[in-house]
Amino acid sequence: MPVPPQPHQELQPEPQPEWRPGPRPLPLHLATANLILLTSLAAWPSAKRGLPPWNPAQNPLHDALRASLANLPPEAFSTALAEEAAARLSRFALGIGAYRDHPYRRDAAAEPAPLWQEGSTRLLDYAPDSSAPVLLLAPSLVNRHYVLDLAPGQSLVRYLAQRGLRPLLLDWGAPGEAELAFDLTAYIARLGRALAVARQANGGSPLPLLGYCMGGNLALAAALRCQADVSALALLATPWDFHAGGTHQAELVRHLAPQLVPPLPQPGAAPEPMAVDVLQGFFWALDPLTALKKFTSFTGIAPDSAAAQRFVAMEDWLNDGIPLANAVARECLQGWYGANSPVRGEWLVGGQAVLPGLWRKPALVVLPERDKLVPKPGAEALFHALPGAWRHDAPSGHIGMVVGPRAEAGLWQPLAEWLEGPGGLAP
C-alpha cells in the first residue's frame, strides 16, 4: 500500500562553502604532479642509454626522440626538460588557483521543495502539482544527487520535466545518526518506501525507476523487491561484473580495502563511516594524472566562458562527496569489488540474491563509451543478464554522459524517447 509523506523536520540543502577544498584530496594531487614531472628529470640520464624493458611499446618513440636530439649539446635537452617540468607544475598550480577563485557557486536554494523525507533522505519534486507521468531517479550513495541537476543547461531532471514528465529525484544526503548503522539492505528498503510515495504521486500506478552508477544497483535491487511499484527500469553506467574490463581496479580495491575501510565498531559505539578523502583516493588511483591534465588545461579557458562555468560546476560536484556508512563500504569494496558478488549471484539483500534475470518488465541499459569509473564490459554484463533489455551506447564518459556538452543529444533525448516509448511514460 502506498504510504503518505511522513511528518518531518525541514532539512535544508547544505550551502556551498565560500572556499573550495578541491581537487580532493589536494595533497595527493599535488604530490602526484610533482612526482611524475620531477622524476622525469631523474629518469632521463638512464633513458638515454635505452628504455627500460618494462615498456617496450614506447621503444619507437624513444628511438625517434634520441635521433632528433643527436646533434644537440649534451645538456640542452636536460635543461629544456627541467624548464618544461617547472612550467607544467606552474600551470597546474595556476589552474587550481583559477578554479578555487572562480566566482561561480551553485544555487542550492533553487532546488524544489521535498515531497517526502526520511532521516537524511529527501525526495525532490521537479514538477509539483502536476498530473504528468512520474518517474523516480536514484543516484549513487557516494556522490551528491545534484549531478542530475547540476546547473542551468546541465540538468537531466529539468530536461525531463520540460518534456512533460514529473521527475522525482532522490537525495540520499550525508549519513546521519541513523544512517551510520545502515547497510545496503537498509538503504534499498528506504528506496522502496520512496517508491511507494512516488507511486501515490503517480495516481497509484507503477512508474519507471532510473538508477545512475551505484544508484543503478540499488534501483535494480529495489525493483526486484517492489515489482508492483515499478513499471520499467533505466540503468545508467551501472557496474555489475566488477572484474571485467578493469581487473587492475578490482585488484587495487581488494588489497587496499581491508586497511582503509574503518574497523567494525565496538559494542555500543557508533560506526565510523569511510571518509570522503579516502573514497576520493580510490577515484584518484583509476587515473593518477587526471587532475594534472585537466587543471593544466583549465588555464587556457576564459574564466567568464560557459566552458569555464561547466568545468567549475562539475569539479564542485566531484569534490562534494558523501561519507559512506561503514557496512555499506564493506559490502561495496569487499563484496562487490573484492569478491565480485553481483555477477556471481552472491550479492544478498535481505537474505535474497539480486538476480537480474528475474526482472521481466522493460529495461534500458546505458553504456558510456569512455567510462573510466565503470569499465564498459562490467556494465555490459548487466545488459546481458536482463532479459529483453534495450541498450544505448552514449558517446561520452561516466560523468560527461550526464552533464557534458553532448549530454542532451547523447543521453537525455534518447532516454526521454525510451521512457515515452518502451518505458511506458506517455506525456
Write the layout of secondary structure elements.
Layout: H1 26-47, H2 59-68, H3 76-101, E1 114-118, E2 121-125, E3 134-138, H4 156-162, E4 166-171, H5 184-201, E5 207-212, H6 214-225, E6 230-236, H7 247-260, H8 276-286, H9 290-298, H10 306-318, H11 326-338, E7 348-349, E8 352-353, E9 363-368, H12 376-385, E10 390-394, H13 400-403, H14 407-420
Parallel strand pairs: 3-4, 3-5, 5-6, 6-9, 9-10
Antiparallel strand pairs: 1-2, 2-4, 7-8
Helix pairs in contact: 1-3, 3-9, 5-6, 7-8, 7-11
Description of the molecule:
The protein is an alpha/beta fold and 427 residues long. It has a domain at 108-242 and 360-420: Rossmann fold. It has helices at residues 26-47, 59-68, 76-101, 156-162, 184-201, 214-225, 247-260, 276-286, 290-298, 306-318, 326-338, 376-385, 400-403, 407-420, and strands at 114-118, 121-125, 134-138, 166-171, 207-212, 230-236, 348-349, 352-353, 363-368, 390-394. The strands form two sheets. An eight-stranded mixed sheet has the order 1-2-4-3-5-6-9-10, sandwiched between helices. It has a two-stranded antiparallel sheet with strand order 7-8. Strand 5, helix 6 and strand 6 (230-236) form a beta-alpha-beta unit. It is globular and about 80 Å long.
